């Protein structure tokens, strides 16, 4: 949505109404602002090309990828829109990255990883981010998935402003619904889906789809939508999706579209896959649990397993949410150690599970390919000594290294490298550091291996030709079927084809110079096969119920990665026999796909025959039409000349209406034949010339809220966020206040996030009015701050911020008008460290840790005695206990210091409606001449429930909060919860412990808690007491979403000096503490 004045004039009245009707807490200040980062290791010079339906953005080295994406996107556009029954109104923007490493540097979506404040309206932006996978067939799948996901999201939550608001508040779908639909549209009924369903139905307890998240939700959703297509027809997919925008409930939409109850539908879905499993149960088996090397308890992804040449060691790689490591196992001694760690925890971004890659050079030398700081490195690790030695080598010529292996001598590497949108085979001399390109075409390559000690290389490819050609293959010839080939380096132009199947034959492993073991899904499950190069016969070796993900064989040992119980496990077995053979029936899925393929072939052959007959008939008709006729001799007769008003009665022609020529049957059939053929032949996509990227700002979101300030009471808050397409430039602005702007806030902020360092500029004005009998004071604080941030990774950053601040005190009482304004000026700096690896799992439900440490100092420019500083520490941890129960804790500490130290005020809770203020004289003006500009810097330490605002105050505070958050119905109810109110309903038990004091510590006898001063005539009396330095509050509460806003109701009892107070009630707004 483009931002312009006309639109703003239309939107502002609506936003004002929303602000009056609804209320919530918005983070106007930055005190507890956390959030994630993106780290840029290089500059991206963006350009873009356009097609009919897409704008495709790319950068250096990505033009070929952009052209490929343009063809894929346009050719998939009609299929996707027909299947889901929706086409977006605006052009879709596709941002292409040369690798997943580069994609992680993108700023797009960096602010969409936390909790939205109440009253926030996010606008749907037709944008997709896709990284080139290094393989064209998987890139097509990734791109199609991204397009489908965006189209479905736009279908559900897009449209005009009214539809966006209605969908935001009224449409709440389980994760499987949309995520599964997008996955099915992109991938259909694939091996991964089949494996997951067999594993779920046979190895673990069946879970309700509504409670699943992330990968499980996508796979179950894909399985459900596949069931709809297979049992009820694919046309009903669009019917269900379109109806849900009207009824706003997935159960009702499914029931009304399919004509069956939702319960019967879910039972039918489960039965559909159970029947398929039962037909294979007698033939298929699983490895013994005793063969599991160790239990995978954290859902690690295992990528590679590799034996050392002598079989003494096993190296394997693990990846957990982006953090990876390479582990070495001493098999005889059953000991393990980590050789290499890398990566970082990825939040809401693509994870490259293909890294790191490992291969042995010798019995004590391991080679590892892994990225670091946006670059590809080869690590050479020696494990022969107690202290592991590592050497690294930068591979700058490649965007990605997909797979590699090392020759028996340990000097040559054959690898699949990706450059400029193409993956090809390369040879690299480790000693000479030279790289040679072997192939140069548009096909994909996988799993290259040296064939024994020969000059031959065996690999898997989706190529259709046995001859190596230097040309770019068109999109139609890029197949998802892979076969095995052998390349002889002595005659590299001609390949030897080993397999020729309509399946994926991958991961070849030569066990000698005449036999190659490989994985194939030709029967619907990835099993091990053995190919004999002498007699050209393939033999099936295994009959497992689930697919083998990766494997390695040395001698009579085998290591395999397979799923079991929803987790990948590493199996290790001895004394295997590679001379056995197995035969299994094809899975039901494979039978259906084979039948459809045969029907397609049969239909194409029939069309070709009809086309041939048509051409013969047409040719015969044209020959008949060209038979020469006898020329008749005609005698020319002289025609009389006629006047203008005379008519030639011998040659008169009447006026007639034009009559269209009737098409013959052959002409009509030929046109129909052409229309049938055009779906199989991709049209040439018109692509514009590349254009440079220009910054174009759009409105990202609006916030309209009610904010309750302890000093200024209630006020309306308006905030708007704008950003450019790449989200490298951000503009935020906000206004808080009522009709009386004497109690108000305004801020404007600009952020530049394009480079390695992030820059910011922020201006804020804070206005405060204090009135009383014969008192009318106005205070203002102007604060201008520049900032520079250095993100270490996605979760942590450090920020330095120089600033300038000024305060003004105006006495507006009539009797004091002659008094001049009093101003103070400050210059200062702030240093801040922020850490945030939390994951939002639901409304007010987080997992992980957040922390912030901040120190700032104000130097008085007019009067150095007015300088002061502040230290703030805020640490929060969210621990999952069981299912969706969260135990949340927070420890915070603050300290003012310096000549003019300010005050923390302890008690109450944030955004407290109908709040009470203790010790009001401390925040009120006592006389007309008194300057209370210090109130502009005072801070309220919350929550400490059981007490009023400002119950205690001092230059220091310490606060510990603990909450047990139980989503009531979500935890106990097994059905679908469609209401926001009931789905987000939580009961909370809490305890708050805090103290505020001035002095060395809360236990010191001389601090403000234990010392009182009494003025009695000519005497000043100092009274020391020994009260408990901590206030304790405890109680319970309820939280839920009402009208789109998060409301909290708490009842608490306060304990002071072992005396419990009466119950106190709190109605407040906002998330978390």
TrEMBL record:
Keyword field:
Signal
UniProt keyword Membrane present: no
As given in the record, the signal peptide range reads 1-26
Q: What InterPro entries has UniProt attached to this entry?
A: 6-blade_b-propeller_TolB-like
Region feature (Disordered): 616-645
Q: Does the keyword Metal-binding apply?
A: no
Q: Which CDD domains match?
A: UDM1_RNF168_RNF169-like
Q: Where is the composition biased (Basic and acidic residues)?
A: 616-636
Recorded protein name is Translocation protein TolB
Provide the taxonomic classification: Bacteria, Pseudomonadati, Bacteroidota, Cytophagia, Cytophagales
